[in-house]
Design a protein that fits this description.
globular; alpha/beta; 12 helices
Length: 341
Amino acid sequence: MRILTCLWCVGMACGIAGAADPSAERTQWFREAKWGVFTHYLTGDATTPEEWNRAVASFDVNRLASDVASTGAGYYVITLGQNSGHYCTPNATYDKIVGISPSKCASRDLVADLSAALAPKGIRLMVYLPAGAPDRDPVAMKALEWKNGKYPVWSYPEGGPDGGDDRLVNFQRKWESVIQEWSNRWGEKVSGWWFDGCYFPIAMYKHADAPNFESFAAAARSGNPKSIVAFNPGVCDPITLLSQAEDYTAGEINDADKLVCPGPAVDGRQYHMLSFLGKFWGAAPPRFSDEQVFAITKGITDKGGVVTWDVPIQPDGTIQEPFLNQLRALGKAMGSTPKAP
């Protein structure tokens, strides 16, 4: 996750949109869950496809499911991949576009296997994906027709250029096709998407015609119309919303202990915060006491918001014990009932 300072934040509404709003219906389970667990399951740029396949094959989904269940968390979020171009699930559309052989997409569909392990315990599965191409893979970058924009992101809040070089229409259409394949394959096995790096919302997505935020969200919901979607603009305090095509706020925050939740919604969409329990994303050791984690979480959920905590994870799917213990302490303090073993 790239750290940005938000110089433009849209206004906040006082409550969730009315019951007739499909977004309110989609996020009902999310509000009721109150809090969940996030892990950055990633690998280095130099990892070979063979090494990546061995790592993904070693992931013990049953242990992970049991560990998350023991905390009482209502959902679990995993990264599909990020900047290295390695993904923990196959995608034929991606392989056809980028032409990399052997594929850097794992042969195992870790997402499907995780869903099969989590669902019997009543735990929802969500997935993370950058909105841009893997920017440390030059082959994929070229094939996908992606290029990074320029900063600052929020220079023109009322319209006009915001740092993106152009609309990247070809890239967007290719990326939506990749997302659509995943969504269609998983269907209701995946309950939500968290898209990182939507740093150029005006240049790329705020358009009346597709590709735009609406077509982006539609690709993610292709296989499951009930999927919840969020687009991350970077670190913004107060937490903001980019589009009415979203169902909840991405809510990336570094200083979780300083955040003030204004209520259950931002512009009629579910208020949500995502931050890390460690010293940074996916990094040990824990930075808060158990009491602080509870106070931060309860301070948001008592106002109708939702909280997601990132913790480190090992290649085999093991959550480090200090973090697992802290999550269990949080669940106990929150009154979350551990899920069935």
